[in-house]
Design goal:
Helix content is 5%, strand content 40%. With 334 residues, the protein is mostly beta strands. Strand 2 and strand 3 form a beta hairpin.
Length: 334
């Protein structure tokens, strides 16, 4: 008991110790596989933390290790399976052994399924929404989400997957008055800190240059194509500021530019005000500047001039091997 209470002062909260990869995956049968994972659990409040885990993959079902789960639900129905783990301790909480226990609690099939309640003191690892299309736990018709809370040693950043999960830290993680709590916001890819667990401040940070494939389209009418050419893009984030560049080369046989204002997709949705971006088009031995804008609430930049002939847009035919580049920056919705 004293050792468990000491561990409760060492770890931030019950959950999975991040070691990379998924804690639970599907299999070719009606079982789930729990990967090697470190765990921190708590059977009852004030009982301290159990620190445990498994050092090799185990397959689990409703009866525990080696068990199976029922086959897929009937047509039009879905169910939610919750995979969990807990540490037993002989002589306490009606336990007769002292070893890790893994299991699956299966929900009731329904058109709108509800997650079942797992045993008291268990650590939730993952949830699978299984439809009637499933032929195994790894086949199409499954949607396995890693839903375990993430934990770590006090003084280190605690990772969260959603803003809703971040909000639960107020009740799950103890922070001394005035002491900061450092959070790694996984989807936003940034560090945040808080003194009161209600207001979070971002720490400036950058991401490496990342490549993506922009989509070239028009707002309406026939759509353009680079033919046998190429279109590439790359971007870098500094907090929620995105710096990007797009390079498009028309194929050797040329390509029509469609019948509407041109658009090029961005890696995220534009926030704030409309932003002007710059471009350069070199086609048929002639260079010209390109006026474009990043559209708020949308995930694209758009040609700022529509029309025919010398302007970009409707009916404009690009010469073979023409090259267009667009570069700029914008604030992204996060």
């Amino acid at each position: 008991m004293e050792m468990r209470k000491a561990d409760a002062l060492t770890y931030l909260r019950p959950g999975v110790v991040p070691i990379g990869g998924s804690a639970v995956v599907g299999t070719s049968g009606w079982q789930y596989q729990v990967q090697p994972v470190g765990l921190v659990g708590q059977r009852i409040e004030g009982d301290g933390y159990h620190v445990f885990g498994n050092d090799g993959p185990v397959t689990v079902g409703t009866s525990g290790v080696g068990g199976t789960v029922p086959a897929a639900p009937g047509s039009g129905l879905s169910r939610i399976d919750v995979v969990w783990a807990r540490q037993t301790s002989a002589g306490e909480n009606a336990d007769t052994v002292s070893e890790p226990v893994f299991g699956v609690t299966v929900g009731t099939p329904a058109s709108v399924p509800v997650a079942p309640t797992i045993p008291a003191g268990a650590v939730e690892l993952a949830r699978n929404t299984m439809t009637s299309a499933a032929t195994s736990t790894a086949s199409a018709g499954n949607s396995i989400a890693q839903t375990s809370a993430l934990t770590g040693v006090r003084g280190t950043p605690i990772a969260v997957r959603t803003d809703q999960e971040r909000a639960t830290l107020a009740s799950q993680v103890y922070v001394a008055t005035g002491a900061p709590l450092l959070v790694w916001n996984i989807p936003a890819r940034r560090f945040e800190f808080t003194y009161d667990r209600t207001q979070y401040f971002r720490l400036p940070g950058t991401t490496p240059w990342t490549t993506y494939t922009p989509v070239w389209s028009t707002a309406s009418g026939s759509q353009p194509s680079v033919g046998n050419g190429s279109i590439t893009g790359m971007y870098k984030m500094v907090d929620d500021l995105v710096v990007f560049t797009i390079r498009m080369q028309i194929g050797s046989s040329g390509a029509a530019g469609g019948t509407g204002a041109w658009r090029w997709s961005l890696p995220g949705t534009v926030a704030g005000l409309e932003v002007a971006v710059n471009g350069w088009l070199f086609t048929d031995g002639t260079g010209r500047s390109v006026a474009a804008r990043a559209v708020p609430g949308a995930a694209f930049v758009q040609d700022a001039i529509t029309g025919t002939g010398a302007s970009l847009g409707s009916g404009f035919v690009l010469a073979a091997n023409a090259v267009l580049t667009i570069s700029g920056s914008y604030y992204q919705v996060v």
